[in-house]
Amino acid sequence: MTELVLGPLLRHVDDRTATVWVETDRPCTVEVLGSSAPTFTVHGHHYALVEVTDLEPGSRTPYRVLLDGRPVWPEPGERRFPPSVIRTRRPGEAVRLVFGSCRRSPDPGGVHGPDALSAYAHRLAASEDAEWPSALLMIGDQVYADELGPEIEEFIHRRRGAGSEPVGELADFEEYAHLYRLAWRTDPAVRWLLSTVPTYTIFDDHDVRDDWNTSHAWRERMWALPWWRRRIVGGIGSYWIYQHLGNLSPRERAADSLYAAVRRAGGDAGEILDEFAERADKDPACARWSFTRDFGGTRLVMVDSRCARLLTPGRRAMLDDSEQRWLTQQLRGGFDHLLIASSLPYLLPRSIHHAENWNEAVAGGAWGRALAGLGERMRQAADLEHWAAFEASFRTMARDVLAVARGERGPAPASVAFLSGDVHYSYLAKVTAPVTGAAPISQVVCSPLRNPLAGPFRWANVLACKPGLAAPLRALAAAAGVPRPPLKWRITRGPWFDNMIATIEISGRDCRVRWEAATGGGRLAERGTAALSA
C-alpha cells in the first residue's frame, strides 16, 4: 500500500483556494476534498501539490488525505490533536501572522532547549478559533544542513560510511530529503501544526550551508571543492520542492515552466531539477525566490537575501538587478501596513552595523590590498554579511521604505516593519530619523525557535546592543570612507535570548507585536509587546 512519507503541509491559502503538499513512498494520485493531483518523481522521491478549489471565504473545512482512494490522514487512532482544517479568510477580519527562524530539530537530548514551534502547536491545539493565525512565516534556517544531529548522522553513516566528504555535512538531494523528514515529521505537534496552518517560508544560510554566498571569495573557495556541486544542487533543488513550490499561488505555479517540465517528465525529473538548481546558483537572475502575499489591507513581501546576491568582482549587492527592480515595485503605498520579511535583519544593533560597514569597505580595498585579505577573512570568520555589509543595497532599501512611509508611492501605511531572524536573539528597533511626516518604521527580530546562543556569544551581543559602542565603530567606518547611514534607529525592546516565537497582530490601522518564549514545561511565556503603528 502507498504510504505518506511527509505531510500533509498546508501551504498557500487565499479566500477560495488552498494548496496541500505531500510526499509519498511511491507514485499515486493524491486527493483532498474532491480535488486530486498525480505525484511527480525527483531522485526517486514522489511529491504532489493538491490545489483545493471552490472554498468559501471565511470557511472552516476539515480535510482528509487519500492516496489512490485510501485515507492516510488523519492517521488511524490519532486522538491527541484536532482534525486538520483549512481556514479561509473572511473579508475585513483581523490578521495574525506568527513567525520565527532558526530551528534545530529533532533534538532528543534537549541540547537546544525547548522548541517554541512545538509549544505554540500544543497551545493552538487547545485554543479557540479566536487565537487562530492567518499564517505561519518561517524566516530562514528551517533545516541545518551543516550542523547535524545524531539521527541524520546515523543515516549518512549507513549510506556512505564514516569519513566520506563532506564530513559532518549533507552531500546531496537524498540527504536533504531525509533531513526535511526529520525536521517536520519527528514531533507530532509540529507535524499537525504544519497540516492546519498556512505556512510560507524563505531560506537562510543553514538551509544550504553556513555563510552561504557571503562573498565572491567564498563562492570561489566552495566551487573548488570536489563535493560542492552535488551539495549546492541538492540544497537548492530540495528547497524548490520542500519549501518554494508551496509559497506560490495556483496561478503562479501554473506559470512556472520548471514545474510544468518536472510534471510532464514522465519518469524521474531529477536531472531537470539539478540543471535548474546549478543554473540558479551561478546566475541569480534566472530564478526568483522572493514573493508577495496580501492579507486584506496588509502587504507581506518575503525577500530572498541569500540566493539573489550579486557577488561579481567589484560589485556587491544583496539583490541582483532584476530582483531589486521587482522589490522596488512591490514596496508601495495603498496598504494599511507593509511587512518586509528578510531572514537577515535590516536594522542590526548600531555597533554591529558600523562594524559590517567598515569590514565591507576594507575587504573591498579601502585600506589597500594588504588589508583586503584580512578583511575578507574577518568577514567569513565573524559572519559579517548582513544588509549592513551590502551598503549600497542598504541605502536602496532605505530610499524605498522612506518613499512608502512618506506617502510618495500612494497613500502611506500606518506602519512599515521588517520581520527577521538569523541572529539568535530577539529585539525591536525603531527608526528615529528621518521621521517627519512618515509612518513608523520598525525592525522586529524573532530568533531562534530552537537554537540558543552559547554564553560567550550571548554576552558579546549584549555588549553590542549597548549604545556606547556605536560611536567609535562609526568613526572606524568613516575612516574607511563609508558615508553615514541614511537612517537612525535604536533598540527599544530586548535583546532576549530565549527560544521564541512572535506574533504580528493587525486590526485595521493598528499593528502590534508580541514575543513569547518557550519554557521548560513546553509552554509559552510572554516576554514583551509593542505597538508598530502610530
UniProtKB/TrEMBL annotation:
Classification via Gene3D superfamilies: PhoD-like phosphatase (3.60.21.70)
Positions of the PhoD-like phosphatase metallophosphatase domain: 128-452
SUPFAM superfamilies assigned: Metallo-dependent phosphatases (SSF56300)
Record-annotated DUF7800 domain positions: 1-86
PANTHER family documented for this protein: METALLOPHOSPHATASE BINDING DOMAIN PROTEIN, PHOD-LIKE PHOSPHATASE METALLOPHOSPHATASE DOMAIN-CONTAINING PROTEIN
Protein name: Uncharacterized protein
Species annotation: Thermomonospora curvata (strain ATCC 19995 / DSM 43183 / JCM 3096 / KCTC 9072 / NBRC 15933 / NCIMB 10081 / Henssen B9)
